[in-house]
Amino acid sequence: MGEANDNGCIQNEQEEPDKQETGFTRTQKLTLLSVSFVSFANFVSFSIMAPFFPVAASNKGASDTVIGLIFGLTALLMFLSSPILGKFLPHIGAKTMYLAGVFICGSCDIIFGFLDRLPDTTQFTAFCFVVRSIEAFGAAAATTASFAIIAQTFPNNLAAVFGFLEIFQGLGFIIGPPLGGYLYSVGGYTLPFVVLGGCAILIALCNILILPPLTDGGKPESGSILQLLRIPSTTVTGACVLASAIALTFMEPTLAKHLQKYNIDETEVGLMFLASAGTYTISSVFWGWITDKKNIPKLLMIFGNIGAAAACLYLGPSPLLTTENTGLWMVILALALLGLSVGCLLVPTFHDMITTAKWYGMPDNYGTYGVVSGVYTSLYALGSFVGPTIGGALDQSYGFGWACTVLAAIYLFAAFVLILFCLWEYQCGKGRRLSPYRKAQMVVIWL
């Protein structure tokens, strides 16, 4: 029986969570192997053309604005298409959507590698937009389905597995640019895209045999996006997903320019980006493990926001600080802290959204996993589009120091909102979510 607290809210009796198994089954191992390779290939695809495509497109007559739109189009279209794909995932099938998305991405990469042979600027630009649009749809399908597959296959180790996948995604971002530059120097514009696309198609074909059958065992039912979005915690956690993506991408158009005053070459600038990407990648498994072990996703998000705010303040450095003319060592430390903090902020979010959805009565099936994965992918893609956009605009208008200060204020505000929400949720919401299997619960929906 539940008891009323001092505020008149119902507090439920605690039940012990189900005992978790320590080892992975053969199905889980094969699934993790498959999704890891695809995650790596997808993120290599996003980053491989960064070293050479702007110059190649400029030589074809494309303006800087058009080149920027070609880069940003993938994230924008993933933001729009992911929730729809998540909605229909149970009817299409997780494995079918997953493999089809990978195959589409690989095919588009190969086609993109031959666009430089088009005769004029208009045709080149138009086909770049068309091919990138189709590839964005494929990437959204593969990413949304992969998150749903992970949620279904690893219910007791969701955050830890999610953190493990972040390693492969981070490696994709790290390896993509130097690999693209090397292949371009060896074989020109076409070779990087043909190699990458061919590998993606090969992975898709292998996964037809490797990836086990994935099914709920019942009649396919779509989840409700509206029901998910009406859950209070979804709004708060979704904002953290958006903030994480912004933190990882806002430096793309601004950091290299900021580092010019330190008189370092392009190779050293590239290594500076590794300071944040490397710490994020390495720490992801730890944040996933502690999320599963201690079940404190919101607390980790609070610490992540505070750490990201501190990193941004010193990265600028902020004009509000007395520190001036900081050395390169301060930039390196700030970037490392930013990567560490974003890992703490982002890794627990998917685990929290899945747990929250089931806690508020959404069924434990692919319908729920699909809509959660779609919304999650959509928010992350939106942040990836907004990050470079606002980063470049703030830097151009107010300078790098004030741009970082604005971002720091956003993260401090997010931490403050999270603290208030956790206090409200404990006192007047569902109480502590120590077990997702408690039968008695207080459901609060924002109308």
Describe the structure.
The protein contains 15 helices and two strands. With 447 residues, the chain is mostly helical. Helix 12 (297-315) packs antiparallel against helix 13. It starts with a strand and ends in a 19-residue tail after the last helix. The chain is globular and about 55 Å long. Strands 1-2 form a two-stranded antiparallel sheet. A hairpin with a 5-residue loop joins strand 1 (3-4) and strand 2. The longest helix is centred in the first third of the chain and has 33 residues, at 121-153.
Short descriptors:
mainly alpha, two-stranded antiparallel sheet, 15 helices, 2 strands
Number of strands: 2
What's the SSE pattern?
Answer: EEHHHHHHHHHHHHHHH
Q: What class would the helix/strand composition place it in?
A: mainly alpha
Q: What is the CA-based Rg, rounded?
A: 22 Å
Number of helices, counting only DSSP H or I runs of 4 residues or more: 15
State the major sheet.
2 strands, antiparallel
Distance between the termini: 27 Å
Strand order of the largest sheet: 1-2
Share in helix: over 70%
Low-confidence stretches: 1-22, 431-447
**Whole-number mean pLDDT:** 81
User: Strand share of the residues?
Assistant: under 5%
Shape: globular
